[in-house]
Structure formats: structure tokens, C-alpha cells
UniProtKB/TrEMBL annotation:
Its main location: membrane. The chain crosses the membrane at residues 12-30, 50-74, 86-112, 155-180. Keywords: Membrane, Transmembrane, Transmembrane helix. The gene is Krtcap3. Coiled coil: none annotated. It is a multi-pass membrane protein. It holds the Pfam family BCLP. The lineage of its organism: Eukaryota, Metazoa, Chordata, Craniata, Vertebrata. Belongs to the TMEM54 family. This is KCP3 protein. It is found in: Membrane. GO terms for cellular component: membrane.
Length: 195
């Protein structure tokens, strides 16, 4: 019953809006400072680019939408259409955010394992070292490879934490929608409490 309190649902909605904006900002910073160099002149998209930018931004946008719906539901508890909207959107966002969190963890692991070489594929320099953190002797590379690795990891870690928190709050909103619709064992206890 405490999970379905309107004030707690409103706080979860506000949290999702803040986390969604954080994911959008981090996705924009990753794209602007790191991943635009990864695409290079040939515009070849690496797995890290797709995972970190596209899915993270999509999860951020959906989190903002779920947050808005959760706030609407907290003020209109009797509207069944809003309950179903919250249920479907929060379930989708929970799945997308969980997938994004796993994808970001995979991108971080691949980047660390390859010593950042996936991140500097846009550089066709013959003097490219085996480690992306090492400086390149020549100036053939259009970007500074020593900063790409550290910047990407420094931005991917907080992004992964944000999308994991989005998944938790979306799961909570999904449970609240199930309770409001009378589905599941928690809904019976909530109904008795309301009576």
C-alpha cells in the first residue's frame, strides 16, 4: 500500500524526469566530445557508439515520458487509461533501461579489453600505438587519441548508473500501475487497506 501512495508516485515521476534529463545530457556530451571522432570520415559506427549514444538517449527520453505519466497518475488516481499507459510505458522503459545498462557495461568492458582501440578506429595513422592512451608520434590523427579513452569511460560510468536507476524507478512505477489495476498479490492488500 505504501508503494502506491500518490506522493511517493509523484517523487518517482520527478526522479525519472531528472534521471532522463541526465541521460540525455551525458549522451550529448559523449557524442560531442568523443563519439563524433569515432565515426571518422567514413562514418563507420562502432558498437560503443550505438550503445552509448542511441540507446541511452532513447532510454532518457522514455524515462522523461514515464515520469510525466507517473505525475499525472498521482494526481488522477481514478483514471484507468492513465493506469494502463503507466503500466505499458514503465514496463517498456524498465526493459529498455536494463538493456541499456547491460549494453553500457559491455561497451565499457570491450573498450577496456581492447585498450581503447575500438574508440580510435577513425584514426588511420600508421603510427597508431597498441594502447589508445599512448600518445601518437605523428600528427596524422584528426583527434587526440589520449583523451578519447579516458573521456569515454568517465562519461559511460555515470551514464550506466543513471540508466540502472531509471530501470529501478520504472519497475516501481510498473508495480504501482499493477496495484492500481488490481493485478497481483499486492493489489489485494492495497484494496483491503483502502476499504
Amino acid at each position: 500500500g505504501a508503494l502506491a501512495e500518490p506522493r511517493r508516485l509523484m517523487r518517482a515521476g520527478l526522479g525519472l524526469i531528472v534521471l532522463g534529463h541526465g541521460s540525455l545530457v551525458l549522451g550529448a556530451i559523449v557524442h560531442g566530445s568523443v563519439l563524433r571522432h569515432v565515426a571518422g570520415a567514413s562514418r563507420a559506427v562502432t558498437p560503443e557508439y550505438a550503445v552509448a549514444n542511441v540507446v541511452s538517449v532513447g532510454a532518457g527520453l522514455l524515462s522523461i515520458a514515464v515520469g510525466i505519466v507517473a505525475i499525472l497518475v498521482s494526481h488522477n488516481l481514478s483514471r484507468a487509461a492513465l493506469h494502463w499507459t503507466l503500466l505499458s510505458m514503465s514496463l517498456l522503459n524498465c526493459l529498455l533501461s536494463t538493456t541499456c545498462s547491460v549494453g553500457l557495461a559491455l561497451a565499457i568492458a570491450l573498450t577496456i579489453h581492447s585498450r581503447g582501440m575500438h574508440l580510435v578506429t577513425g584514426c588511420n595513422s600508421s603510427a597508431l600505438p597498441a594502447d589508445a592512451r599512448a600518445a601518437i608520434a605523428t600528427n596524422d590523427c584528426p583527434f587526440n587519441t589520449t583523451r578519447i579513452y579516458d573521456t569515454a569511460l568517465a562519461l559511460w560510468f555515470p551514464s550506466m548508473v543513471l540508466v540502472a536507476a531509471e530501470a529501478v524507478l520504472s519497475g516501481r512505477c510498473c508495480l504501482v500501475a499493477l496495484i492500481f489495476r488490481g493485478i497481483g498479490p499486492c493489489a489485494r492488500g492495497y484494496g483491503k487497506e483502502q476499504v
